[in-house]
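ok here's Sec translocon accessory complex subunit YajC:
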Amino acid sequence: MFITPAYAQAAGPAGASGFLIQILPFVAIFAIMYFLIIRPQRQRMKKHQDMVANLRRGDTIVTTGGLIGKVSKVVDDGEVQVELSEGVKVRLVRSMVQEVRSKTEPAKENA
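and the structure:
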């Protein structure tokens, strides 16, 4: 035969280093996915939640449907009343606010 017995033998078990080499690409892919997708999405969600929580009467907002209006009343933790035009008021779920265009100044306390 042309193949010597030394070449035909299988390699011995690699042990722990072989396992680490096999798992390393999965860890690297997860780290890349975390920093490129998961972390920025969490930051965006936290920023949106803070914006929605700080809505006040008089703020000009844009809804996810593209309507622009002014907050006329904060109904409760989940809803606001928005005036779209003179005399046209609608109740809107807070999470449907996409952007706050202009903020009103906070009410000044009497000193």
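+1. The CA atoms of residues 14 and 83 lie 70 Å apart.
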